[in-house]
Structures are given as structure tokens and as C-alpha cells.
Write a structure and sequence with these properties.
It is a single chain. With about 130 residues, this protein is of the alpha/beta class. The chain has a single domain, classed as Transcription Regulator spoIIAA (2-Layer Sandwich), CATH 3.30.750.24. It is built from 4 helices and 7 strands, in the order βββαββαβαβα. Strands 1-2-4-6-7 form a 5-stranded mixed beta sheet, with helices on both faces. Strands 3-5 form a two-stranded parallel sheet.
């Protein structure tokens, strides 16, 4: 799977790092594998897209479906944050589209923001330690 991730229980943070060609199956696989784990419920999330060379699923319907699925996995009583780092224009645009769909998802409790650099993302997440990725 070209999406590697680390779970930092001390910071209550999941750091995901996609690499190479990112497919629909990779994104949905990561979502299901990580966010179905009870021990990460309510954790913040950092996704760093810097290592992605190409995205092979560009469908607004699939992005909307991913946003709905992700929101449905949010624990209702625990607000958390997702910071997406996207330096490439295409990745930034797709991440902003995902952000918009997540904002409109009824059951979602995770705030989503897209950033151009890691420092701003970490500051918004409220962590001063650079997570290993």
C-alpha cells in the first residue's frame, strides 16, 4: 500500500504519508484500515501529500463518497482535526474539494484544513513536535 502511517498515541495523532501513484483503492484502504481501529477514535490526523507523484482517481463522486465514509467513522462525541499538506496545485485543489465535502457531511466531527506547508499544518493541529513520517 503506498500509504504508510504512524500512530503517535502520546500526541493522539495519526500521520499518513502517501507515496508514488495514489489510487482510489489506496485511499479507501487507508481510511478503513486506520479509522476502524478503536484505539485511534478521536485522534487528530496529518496527511502529507509531498511524496505523491500522481493521483489516479479524480472523480467528484468518489471524493464525496470518501468524505461521507470518513465522516461516518468519526466518533460522535469527540471533535478532532485533519490537516492535509498539499504543495502541488492539483493535490491542493482535490484536498480542498474533500475539505468542502467533509464540512457538509452531517455526522462528521473532524475539522479539515488544507495547507501548503508542514509548519502551518502542525501549528493548526497544536503540536510542536515534528512527527516522524
Amino acid at each position: 500500500m503506498p500509504v504508510t502511517y504512524e500512530i503517535d498515541h502520546g500526541q493522539r495523532l495519526v500521520v499518513a504519508t502517501p507515496h508514488g501513484v495514489l489510487t482510489d483503492a489506496d485511499v479507501f484502504g487507508y481510511q478503513q484500515e486506520v479509522w476502524s481501529r478503536p484505539e485511534v477514535k478521536g485522534y487528530d490526523e496529518l496527511i502529507d501529500m509531498a511524496g505523491v507523484s500522481q493521483i489516479e482517481f479524480v472523480s467528484t463522486k468518489r471524493i464525496a463518497f470518501l468524505a461521507d465514509l470518513s465522516a461516518s467513522m468519526d466518533p460522535p462525541a469527540l471533535a478532532s482535526k485533519l490537516a492535509i499538506i498539499a504543495t502541488a496545485d492539483l493535490h491542493f485543489g482535490l484536498a480542498r474539494m474533500y475539505e468542502t465535502y467533509r464540512e457538509t457531511a452531517k455526522q462528521g466531527t473532524k475539522a479539515v484544513r488544507v495547507f501548503r506547508n508542514r509548519n502551518e499544518a502542525l501549528q493548526w493541529l497544536g503540536t510542536s513536535i515534528q512527527p516522524a513520517s
